[in-house]
Structure formats: structure tokens, C-alpha cells
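BUG: 3D viewer hangs when loading the predicted structure for this chain

Environment: internal workstation, default settings.
Expected: structure renders.
Actual: progress bar stalls at 90%.

Input used:
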Amino acid sequence: MTNSTQPPPDLSCTQDLFKYTYNEQQRFRERERRFDVTELQRLAAEAVARKVEDILSISKLGEGAGNRAFVIRFRNDFKLVARIPYPVTEPRQQLVANTDTEAVLNAGAEKEIKYLARYGRPLFPFNRMQREIFNLEKQQPSVHVDSLRKYLQISSSLIPEGSRELIRPILRHPDLRPSNIFVSDDYEITSLIDWQSTTALPLFLHTGIPDNLDNSVDPVSRSLETPRMPDGLSASDEDSRLEQLELFHKRHLHYLYITETSKRNRIHYEALTLPFSVGRRKLYDLSSAPWQGDNIPLRSSLMFMRQQWLQIAARPDVPCPIAFAEEEEQACFRLDELEREVAEQLRGSMEMLGLGPEGWVSSDNYEAAKEAIGRMKEMCLEQAETECEKTAIKDHWVYDDMDEDEYL
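C-alpha cells produced before the viewer hung:
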């Protein structure tokens, strides 16, 4: 008798869709997701009314921030895309709910103060390009704790008065990039994916322009002038023309988001135009984030709020409860500017090398990127003028592996 049993499907999922130029093994461990392949086959076949035996192969399609996608190929060349999501929160008992606005504003800072009191120790800034700014000296957590305590003194003043809608808890998608928005052939939004990092927060803390549309760094976009096509495009060379068109495109998207929000989503527009809207969110985010050796962002933001107190405070007749020495403010703002410059240098460097977040690079470009990084390090060492610069490059090179455990 002929054995009609079909061979098992090919499960040789495509490997190495991408790589990391540094700390690769740690990134791969973080992204590992274990699941039952047999159960995935059963569910896939059931979803399209087919038999499991009709599955010929399963191959990895790609990896997102919160999903793993696979192509399941059936007989007759029918294909199905399956996504394996990450668990949203583990363990579930650590989920926190609170509707008191001031308690929400304070929870992160209070948690961080307790953590640093017990486990805090001096650290280099996590961003290795920033370390030279501080002469390669570890920073003290006590400075950040002082900033957190100052934040708690002014946090209630971040709550807008006069509109309960602005403090109403809402859910907002945390990453509205095109790849997370599914659109039908009729241009209707059919689904949004990757909600796993969503939090419920008061509206004034959730408001903002999506990163893909935000062009606030541009003064024309900040002024909300109607964008105009650049003059003399036809006479420009191709590189200049493309650069000007890209700038117009960014300005146009930013402008459309603001103007359409004002027409279609009144309460969101009210939150967007709230005085110190960006600063309120920034202070909340910085005070809630784990400390990673950098005392400047939160402290400089508190100093800026103190300077703008009359325009921000719900009761301007009440003096600002926090104070800093003038010399400290000047020094902190200077360091803040240096950190911004370093961040821009790093962004430009990664763009030139074709790297994504955390050193991500496609497998096809991995060898070329590693070679370019090596040449860049050699060139920087040749141009270094001081011992501090040489040590920063040799021992704190941004594209070398590093031990991240002390920052966890």
C-alpha cells in the first residue's frame, strides 16, 4: 500500500532578516518570542477553512516592535500572513490603574525616588557620545533625586484648570507610523496594530503631533504659516530641488495635521494649543523615566519652567516653589545645548551609516556598515587632540558592545 502521509511542512523560517552592529546578542534575547508552531498551523488552517496537511511551509516575513510575522504557504500557492504578538504586560499583577490626575503625574517620580534611594549608584550617561561632555566622569543619582523632588513640588501646577475634558483619561496609539495603519483599497482605515505600549493618561499628557508628521524643529511649521511651494524650483539642480520639495512636504504634513485637528477634533486642538503643552508632557515623561546617568534633561526643563512660571502656573500670584542658583542654571543650559548637538551628531552618523535604532542594520548591509564603523573609529582616533578625546573613543565608542546590565 502506498503511504499517502504528506511530509511535514518546511519550517526553515528565514533567519537574519537584520542584525545589530553592537550588543547584538542582547538585542536578540530581548526580541525572542516562544510559541507553539503546531497550534499556529492549526489556527491558520482553521481560519481559512483548510486542512493542516495542506500547509507546505512557514517562513518568517519580518519583525516589528511588537509582532513577529510569518507567511504560511498552502497547496495551490495560497498564502496567509500570521502575526505572533508580544504579551502586553508581564506579570499582569503589575498593571496599575489610577484616575487621580495629580497621582498620575507623581507616580513615576515617586517610584524613581524610592528606587534610587535603594539601588542608585553613580553611572556614566547611557548615551556614550555624551560622556565626554562630563569629562568621562560618572554622574551622581542624588542630583536626579533632587530634581525629582523639585518636580513633585510643581507637578500640580501642570494640571490645566477650567476644562475637565483636558484631564479626562484617554487611550491614544503610541506609534502612529504608516506601517501600523492598515488601509483598504477604498482608502478607509481598517485596523491599527501595535498598541502594546499604550497607557491611559489625561488628555493633556497624550496630546501631540505624531512623530511621522511633526516638523516642530522648523520655524515655519512652528509659526503655522501656510506652506508654499519654493520659488525657482525649475532653475535648481536636482539635489537642491529634491531637498526643497522634501522640506515643503514636511511643512505641508505638519500644517495639515494642525489645521484638520482644529476642524475635526476640537478638544485635541485645545490640548495642543495649551500654553507650555509640550513642556508639560516633557516634564512628566522625564520624571517617570528610569534614570540612566544623565541629570541634565529633567533639571534643565525644571529651570525653564521656573523662568516661565507666570505664563504656565494656574495661579500666577503664587510664587514658583522651586529655585536654582543663577550660575547653575547657566551651566545646565550650556550642557543641555551640548547634549542636543551631540544627539544631532549621532543622528547624522547613524543616517550616514544606514543604521536604525540601537545599531539595527539589514543583513545585506551588515559587513559594509561594520567596515565603515571601523574606519570611522580609526579616523576619529587620528584626529583626537586630547587624552580625554582618545579615551572617549577607545573606551566609550558609541558603536562598540557595552554592558547594559547596570542600567536595567
